[in-house]
Amino acid sequence: MITAVLIGAGQRGAQVYAEYALTHPNELRIVAVAESDAARREAFARRHQIERGFVFDDWKPLLEKGKIADCAMICTQDRMHTEPVKQALKSGYHVMCEKPMSPSARDCIEMGKLAKKYDRTLTICHVLRYSPFFTKLKEVIDSAVIGDIISIQHIECVGYWHQAHSFVRGNWRNSEEASPMILQKSCHDMDILAWLVGKPCMAVSSFGSLKHFREEEAPEGAGYNCLLDCAVEESCPYSAKKIYCDDEEWYSETIRKVVALEGTADAVAEALKTGPYGRCVYRCDNNVVDHQVVNLQFEGGITVSFTMCAFTYEGSRIMNIMGTKGQIVCDMEKNEIEARDFLTGNRTKHIVKVGNSGHSGSDEKFVRGFLKTVRTNGAFMLSGAESSVESHLIALAAEQSRVTGKTIYMDEFCREVWAPDETKSDACKR
Ligand SMILES: NC(=O)c1ccc[n+]([C@@H]2O[C@H](COP(=O)([O-])OP(=O)(O)OC[C@H]3O[C@@H](n4cnc5c(N)ncnc54)[C@H](O)[C@@H]3O)[C@@H](O)[C@H]2O)c1
């Protein structure tokens, strides 16, 4: 049995990771919580039967207690990971940290170095590495059926409603408050690409912008709130009424609970009238991009082209992996991976079985993997700091390229953010 302290009992912390403790009570127990929102904190403490002296309204007093469990789960928002991670490592915890580690490249590198210094494991929630789909894809690539990888095309289909929910109206709409889209959403993709290629990334270039979700694009008659003052609500695909109240295809308990903690129809309808999720998508304070492309060059001349786009019906990831002896085409939404052999023309199709947990079965497998990392003191490690620092740096370099219009060379980028006399591999080493 592993014991954990939870910092940030929000959507991810309380509803995803800590739930594992309730469904697998012999494997994980949450013994303390820090959560600044009173309603969330009390609900969590009750659900996990946490003693009063171990319930805190901030992470600092919790970590000041010293090491009171095997591991610390840090699930606060994007810009609030660094300090608790550093303190938890120092206190001797094995640490799980939500992605992105930090919007600062320097913080990411420092966190990786501290894990090494204090000889603790630091696992980043790159849940896709644990997914049945990407586990199978990695296995197929490593079996060498397509020979050596030469090039990959990868599309991240965000989904029009998901963009509206998280990146126009929601928590990650503004890069100054959260982090740039390529880091926030696509650090998973940079991570998966680096993992599948298995070689260091050498150079990055990127283009993209916020094209659609702007005041200038508002249709005539658009109001400020979909439920209160919009004349064109019924013809708008991004209508909050449609997404959260009417369209059963999209609204889920998870996103309704983000809108209103109770998640009931009445509570959601009321929250839409007064809170951020009822706002017109053309009149929000969002600034993150709604489409972005990234070109990556890996060691050995392997190239990758990545496209992230909001304007897709479903949320999915589609890949075309081209090797010297064959090709793999796959679609995460359909859970299909098809490999084709150049010599024989044979097709091998894998239909991957996914579980019920979030991210196509990844979330539960991630928690199980993290507990194994803690149990084995890091002997098992699938998304540790070393690889995650590397993939975060790739995402941050892509953002720098998008903003400056320049190709970014990873060695130079890492030297600039860390130390002029260190090479990229030194900077990234834990
Ligand atoms: N791994 C993934 O696939 C994935 C998916 C979605 C979100 N995320 C990441 O997870 C993180 C959390 O997202 P979320 O949706 O759960 O957000 P959230 O806002 O629901 O949860 C964060 C919680 O931290 C609490 N908090 C704030 N200040 C605190 C403090 N000083 N001490 C203790 N708690 C404090 C907040 O009250 C909130 O309840 C984000 O960084 C997000 O990017 C990761």
Tell me briefly what this model is:
The protein is of the alpha/beta class.
How is this structure best described in words?
- Helix content is 37%, strand content 20%.
- With 430 residues, the chain is of the alpha/beta class.
- It folds into three domains: 2-128, NAD(P)-binding Rossmann-like Domain (Rossmann fold, 3-Layer(aba) Sandwich); 131-213 and 287-356 and 384-428, 2-Layer Sandwich (Dihydrodipicolinate Reductase, domain 2), CATH 3.30.360.10; 215-278, no CATH class.
- A nine-stranded mixed sheet has the order 14-13-12-11-7-10-9-8-15. The protein has a six-stranded parallel sheet with strand order 3-2-1-4-5-6, with helices on both faces.
- The model has no long low-confidence stretch (mean pLDDT 94).
- Bound molecules: nicotinamide-adenine-dinucleotide (NAD).
- Nicotinamide-adenine-dinucleotide is lined by residues 7-13, 34-37, 40, 58-59, 75-78, 80, 98-99, 125, 127, 171, 184, 359.
Topology at a glance:
Layout lengths: L1 E6 L3 H7 L1 H5 L4 E7 L3 H11 L6 E2 L2 H6 L6 E4 L7 H9 L3 E4 L7 H13 L4 E3 L7 H11 L6 E9 L2 H9 L12 H4 L2 H11 L3 E9 L30 H7 L6 H7 L5 H10 L16 E8 L3 E8 L6 E8 L2 E6 L4 E6 L5 E5 L6 H18 L9 H20 L3 E2 H8 L6 H5 L2
Parallel strand pairs: 1-2, 1-4, 2-3, 4-5, 5-6, 7-10
Antiparallel strand pairs: 7-11, 8-9, 8-15, 9-10, 11-12, 12-13, 13-14
Helix pairs in contact: 5-6, 6-15, 10-15, 11-13
The site of nicotinamide-adenine-dinucleotide has 26 residues, from α1.
